[in-house]
Task: structure prediction
Amino acid sequence: MKNLVEVLVKSLVENPDAVVVNEVTAEQSITLELRVAADDMGKVIGKQGRIAKAIRTVIKAAAAKENKRVILEIIQ
Result:
């Protein structure tokens, strides 16, 4: 999951070196904390949160195959 989020987000932003994803694992859920540069925050979230919602949809579909629950938090 962590690699999937990194690949998706790094392709969207102008400063891919600033992309950091931390993975916090629990029994049935995984929390991914995404940090990007302040200038790239709008590109990751998108208008009305559409891009963020699309990223969450993709990782939830990938997590469904592993019977896990994934939460993506975008942190500034």
The chain has one domain: 2-75. The helical segments are 2-12, 41-45, 50-65. The chain is about 40% helix and 25% strand. The longest strand covers residues 29-35.
